[in-house]
# Entry
Amino acid sequence: MRKDIVKLTLLLLAASVITAGCAGSNAPANGGNNGNSGGTGTESNGQTNGQNNAQPEDEPFEITIRHTQVGESKKFRLAMLEDVVKQTEADIPGLTIKLDGVDSEVNRKEKLRGEMAAGKPPEVFDVFGSPDAALFAKEGLMLDLTPIIAELGIQDQFTTLDPFTYEGKVYGLPIGGSVEGYFYNKQYFEDKGLTIPKTLAELEQIAEAIKTDGKIPFAQSSKDAWIPLMTTNNLWSYYGGPEITYGFKTGETKWTDPSVVEGVAKHQEWVQKGYFKKGELGFEYADMRNQIITGEAIMMMDGSWANSVFRDPEQAGDMVGKIGYFNMPPVNEGDPVVVMQDANNGYGFSAAVADDPQKLAAVTAFIRNMWTEEMQLRGLEEDGVLPAMKIDLEKMKTASEDPLMQDIFAAVSEIDISFPAFDALVQADVNTALSIGIQQIIGGEGTPESMLETVQSAQDAANAAEQ
# Structure
């Protein structure tokens, strides 16, 4: 226990070196982050789950929900969360819920890790499933939700709970699903006679044509490393196969494998060819979306959650209705379409909640109100977040007839092989090493081979520490 708490503290110190992550980003979550949704549910019957039979009293009490719905692009998600909060407060006598909004990367890489190291996380918090939830659950810091979701009858209603499952028990719930692919300027493609590429070579030909026309082929912001790593992750998964990433943690595969080097080298080649705007290492996440909205750039690799920006007149202006979406194409025409697809961003709950009947009742009500088909469809309709719960495809199509969402549905239907983002499969120290490395590659420092040797050294050390 003491050894692992020290490990958590070291993770916090490592996180201060660089703020980096992925998809889901979520966006992601995803989300660098990956997506978030919420809403109202059925009336509470005042019962707690089977972990504690004591009845809560009606005296005033408070819980905190740490969320990452910060900024204009997440306003719809925040509104839905606020509706869930109102309903939950109405369900539980005496309850006041405090919302604590924190930037996704700051929460994941700094604040939550510090709170976990101290053993004092908020009652409810935004969390990545793998590997974060398992690490925290191993230390007894997260609430076992298995009996709660069984009581509520939703244990079998999720597309997957694997990222939040540790030793057979569930320690968090995904708020939405996501895929990664290219948003693009449909009007520009039509005007220039361009079509959706079927191979990486065709994608590069389009990029060259766009560059020749004086535009930026790919919008990109690389101040946070998880953003460019969406491109790199998808590239090495095509060259090496998506299964290669599963082997890094077990030692069955190496970061120095020629196919991984080839993927990183392809990304470096695109940088050197000027397919991204100069100065990308200084650009924030929102900057690359603005590159698309202003017409400065034509394509952008991002998580499906970004669709909400392009469907909102306040954010996208005249570009609403002019943005489409397609999957990164395979190396060779006819090869399987390989896409990052997961449900790795959601909410976790403090283990200390189990000792307080009032807070346990509040958490149960929050879960009941948040994870419903109605609210999953609302998240899809209002914010474009793919459901984390099992929803009929026809209902999804009906919930959102928006052309961009229809493009995303079509792209999902074309996926032959899906895989989780790399940072759901490797340790945090490895994520940090890769994040530093990709920013060095983008900045013209070193080679893919030397960078990946450094990442492999971090992988070897992380694997040895777990033995």
